[in-house]
């Protein structure tokens, strides 16, 4: 760096001692000496000045690359968010379909069980009535052989047995209907599946929003860091040029 100031001093000396042209402010200087001193100045200039000029020359390209990288990052984040939402929707649809299928199977099983219970109760009631009638007929036949008063008691017993059969039949039917209602009430599983699918979709949307926010923040921080670097480089170039114009020392601000 010292050679820069030394060469500048020699240039000043050559210009001051050069022979002036009459009636003009111009002078004659040795071209070879001046060019040689300028080459010395160019070679002695620190490499950071050239690097800073390269940064200035490629500033637009660097900003364009940074913007392309940011756009690619945002696009990738949006694609990932859409993939998460699609996956969540597919999972929710599968859960809903499975819950609906299970609920329909449970309802069908409940109906089948209720129908079977009713049929069993009907058969038991009919069998009870048949036995009661048979017993009543036997009782009536025996009573007719013994006494007319026994006929009245036999009919009462037949009526009692028939009433008991009807009671058993109605009780069995009521039990079957209660069992059917209990099994059908289990369709609440479908409602729980709806709620779970809604929760999964909401969680996927929240995760997509989070990924998009983090991507935008990362892009903003990256562009901000690049802007700071370019600003510092431009300041260093400006200081170097100002110092060269003023003939003062070129300060090294890297420390």
Automatic annotation (TrEMBL):
It comes from the Bacteria. This is DivIVA domain-containing protein. It comes from Nakamurella leprariae.
């Amino acid at each position: 760096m010292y050679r820069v100031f030394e060469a500048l001093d020699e240039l000043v000396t050559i210009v001051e001692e050069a022979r002036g042209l009459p009636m003009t402010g111009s002078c004659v200087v040795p071209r070879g000496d001046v060019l040689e001193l300028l080459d010395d100045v160019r070679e002695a200039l620190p490499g950071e000045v050239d690097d800073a000029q390269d940064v200035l020359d490629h500033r637009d390209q660097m900003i364009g690359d940074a913007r392309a990288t940011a756009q690619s990052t945002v696009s990738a984040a949006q694609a990932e968010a859409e993939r998460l939402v699609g996956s969540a929707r597919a999972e929710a649809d599968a859960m809903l379909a499975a819950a609906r299928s299970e609920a329909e199977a449970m309802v069908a099983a409940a109906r089948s069980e209720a129908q079977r219970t009713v049929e069993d109760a009907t058969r038991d009631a009919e069998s009870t009535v048949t036995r009661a009638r048979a017993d009543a007929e036997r009782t009536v036949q025996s009573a007719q052989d013994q006494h007319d008063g026994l006929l009245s008691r036999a009919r009462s017993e037949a009526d009692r047995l028939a009433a008991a059969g009807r009671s058993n039949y109605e009780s069995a039917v009521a039990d079957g209907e209660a069992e059917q209602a209990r099994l059908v009430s289990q369709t609440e599983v479908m409602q729980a599946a709806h709620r779970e699918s809604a929760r999964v979709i909401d969680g996927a949307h929240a995760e997509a929003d989070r990924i998009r926010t983090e991507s935008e923040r990362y892009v903003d921080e990256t562009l901000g860091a690049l802007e700071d670097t370019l600003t510092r480089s431009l300041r260093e170039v400006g200081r170097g040029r100002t110092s060269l114009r003023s003939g003062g020392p070129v300060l090294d601000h890297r420390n």
